[in-house]
Amino acid sequence: MKEKINVSEIFGSHVFNDSVMKARLPKAVYKDLKKTIEEGTELNPAIADVVANEMKEWAIEKGATHYTHWFQPLTGVTAEKHDAFINPTDDGKVLLEFSGKELIKGEPDASSFPSGGLRATFEARGYTAWDCTSPAFIKETENACILCIPTAFCSYKGEALDKKTPLLRSMQALDIQTTRLLNVLGNKNVKRVSTSVGPEQEYFLVDEEKYKQRKDLIFTGRTLFGAMPPKGQEMDDHYFGIIKPRIEGFMKDLNIEAWKLGISAKTEHNEVAPAQHELAPIYNSNNVATDHNQLLMETMRRVARRHGLKCLLHEKPFAGINGSGKHNNWSMVTNEGKNLLDPGKTPHENNQFLLILASIIAAVDKHADLLRMSASTPGNDHRLGANEAPPAIISIFLGDQLEDVVKQLVTRGEATESKHGDRLASGVHSLPAFEKDATDRNRTSPFAFTGNKFEFRMVGSTQSISDPNVVLNTIVADVFADVCDRLEKVEGGADAVAMEAHEITKELLTEHQRVIFNGNGYSDEWVAEAERRGLPNLRSMVDAIPTLTTEKSIKMFEKFGVFTKGELESRVEVLYEQYSNTINIEGLATLDIAKKQIVPAVMKYQRKLANGVAELKTVGVDSSVQEKLLEDITANLKDLFAAIKKLEADIPEAQALESEAQARFYHDTIFTDMSAVREPADRLEMLVAKEDWPMPSYGDLIFEV
Fold first, then answer.
1. Strand 193-207 relative to strand 309-312: parallel, antiparallel, unpaired?
2. Alpha-carbon gap, residue 699 to 692, rounded angstroms
3. Residue 638 and residue 650: Cα distance in Å, rounded?
4. In whole angstroms, what is the distance from residue 296 CA to residue 137 CA?
C-alpha cells in the first residue's frame, strides 16, 4: 500500500512562518515584528533576542544543530556559512545559545565573492543582515539539518553585493509610487502595495550514470558535442504526455520537500523536449518567491540524486531541441487584497486599470533595453530569438480585448466597449459549452498580459528571478512617479484628477503603442517590423550589458535608491567576467574532450577500419565501402584537428583581454571556434561505431530515463 501524504500537515512544517511565530512569540513581540513585515517599518532591535531564542528552540526541536545566514551573492547561487548553536561553559560543557545579535548580523568574507571592483582583495569585511520579510526555514539534507535565516549581503561601506538588497529596494520603490498613485486617484485606504510573483521552472532530468560519462555536462551544464538522434521532439508526444514512473517518483519527493519548505509547488508536467519537465508554484510576494525559486532549484538537484538522476537547469543542455526558461508571472496587490492588474469584466470602464496598464506599457517601451538585459545569461543566448523562446526584441502582447480598448483610446480618445469571449461549443452534446476568455494567448511574446498579470517569458532557467523583477519594479515605479507628479499638481478636485488621468492614459498609449504586438514573434517579418518601429534588438548578453550604465539607467536607478552608479558599474564588470569565464570554461572543455576523448577514439577506430581494409584486400574481397568510410573519417578528423588548433590558438588571446573587449572576443571568436570544432566531431559520431564512441549519445541521455 502506498504511503499516504498529508499535505496540510507537512506544508510549511520546516518554516518559521506566521503561525509558528504567533504561537511561540509573546504577543507584543509578535505584533511588533508583524508590523515590520507587513508595513515595512524599521525593525525594533529590542525584540531580536526574544525572536532569536524562540527561533533557536523551534529549530532544535526540528533536529537542527547549526544555523546559517542564507544569502544570494552575485554568483547567481546561494551561499551559507554554518555556525553551531553551542557555547562552551567553564565546566567543560556547552549551552545552546543564539542571540539577537547573531540573528540580525553575520560577517562572511566579502572579498571572496564577485564585487566588480567594489571591494579590493584585501578588504574582506562584509555583512549579512536578517531579512525578516522572508521567513527562516530548516534545510534538511541526508547529512545535516540547518536553520537558514534569509539575509541581505552588503559591503563594509553599504554597497549591495547580492541579489536580494536591490530587489528589496525596488519593491520599496514600487510600493511607494503605486501607493502614491492610488491615493491621488482617490483610493485613500491603500497603505501598501506589494508585487506578487509566480515563476514557472523548466528543467531536464537525465540518468546520473550517463551524465557522469559526459565531461561537457559536468564542466559546463550543457552538451558541447552531440549528433541529433533519429527522433527529437517533432512528434510532440512528450508535451503533457504520461509521466514515466521514475520521474513520478522524483516529482513526488520533490513536492514533499518543497511543501515542507512552504513552497507552493502546484503544477507539474512534461515539457516539449524529451526528458524536459516543468514545475509551477502558486504566487507569492516578490521577495519570498525569489527565495523559494532559489531553494527549489537547489532542492531539485538534491532530490534528483536520490533517484539516480541529474537535474539539468542550463538554458540549452542539448542543441537541436528546446531549451529551458523560467516564466516570471508578475502582478501588483494592495494591502486590501486587490490585484491592480485585474481589468474586470468591462476594462474600458476601469480607468484606474487603464492608467496602470498604460504606465506599464510606457515603462516597457522606455526601458526595453534594461528588460532584455535582465534576462541575459550566456545560456539564454542559445534560446532567445530561436523558435522556442521569445525573440530578443521586447514587445507586449495584450490580446484582442485590451488591444481593441487601446485602439479606441488612441484613435477616438475614449473607449466605449470591451470585447467578450463567445461561448465555446464543441459540437458534442454531452460536453459542456462555456464562455471563452476574451482573448487567446501568445507563446511567442516576451511580455504577455494573461488575464490579470504580465508574464515575462524571456527569463533563463538558471537565473535568479531577482534580476528581472528589480528592473520591472523600478521601471514601473519610474513611470508611476512621473504620472503622480502631474496628477498631484491638478486643482479642482476628484473630477479634475480623473480627467487628467484619462488624458495621461491616452498620451502614454499613443506615444508607446509601438511596443504592442499581438502577432507571431518568431517570424522574420516581425524582426523587420520591429526595426521599422525603432524597437531595440539586442541579440546577445554582451550587447545587452552596457544598457545598465547608460545615463538614462543610472539616473533612474539612483532616483529610487535601487542602485548607485558604482553598484551598476560593478555589476557590468561582474557580468562581463561571468560571460567570459563561462565561454572560457566551455572553450577549454571543448579542447579537453576533443583532444583526450574524441580524437583518440576516432584514431583507434580508424586503425581498426584500416586493418580491416588490409585484411579484405589480402583475401581478395571488395573493400571499397570500407575505404570510402575510412576516407570520410580521415577527412573529418583532419577538419577536427584544424579546428582544434584554431581554438587552441585563440583562447590565450582571449584570456589576455579584459572586461568588455574580452567578453566580445569570447562571443565573436571563441564561440565560433567551438562551433567549428563541434561540426566535424558530430559528423564523426555518425561514422564511428557506437561501441567505439567515447560518450553516451543524445539519444541515450534524453530517451533512456
1. antiparallel
2. 16
3. 19
4. 13
Strand ranges (E), 79-238: 82-84, 86-88, 94-96, 105-106, 126-130, 137-140, 145-155, 193-207
Q: C-alpha cell of 441?
A: 494567448
Query: How crowded is the C-beta side of 443, counted as CA atoms within 13 Å?
Result: 7
The Cα–Cα gap between 74 and 130 comes to: 18
Cβ(309)–Cβ(167) under 8 Å? no
Query: Is 320:232 a contact under the CB 8 Å cutoff?
Result: yes
Q: What is the 3-state secondary structure (H, E, C) of 446-463?
A: CEEECCCCEEECCCECCC
654 neighbors 666 (Cβ within 8 angstroms): yes
Residue showing cell 579537453: 592
- Say which DSSP state 423 is in: E
674 and 686 in contact (C-beta within 8 Å)? no
Q: Which three cell numbers stand for residue 258?
A: 518543497
Instruction: State the virtual CA torsion across 454, 457, 461, 463 in degrees, nearest 10.
Output: -60
Mean pLDDT in consecutive groups of 10 residues from the start of the chain, 705 residues? 79 95 94 88 86 94 94 92 82 74 84 77 79 94 92 90 96 97 94 95 97 97 94 81 93 95 92 93 94 97 97 96 94 95 87 95 97 95 79 90 87 81 65 64 85 93 97 98 96 91 95 94 90 94 96 98 96 96 98 98 95 91 92 97 98 97 97 97 97 95 92
d(C-alpha 462, C-alpha 483), whole Å:
35
State how far the Cα of 218 lies from the Cα of 417, in Å rounded to an integer: 57
Residue type, 2: K
The x, y and z cell numbers of residue 561, run together, are 535608491
What pTM was computed for the model? 0.94
Q: What is the CA radius of gyration of the chain?
A: 28
Residue 564, all three cell numbers: 548607485
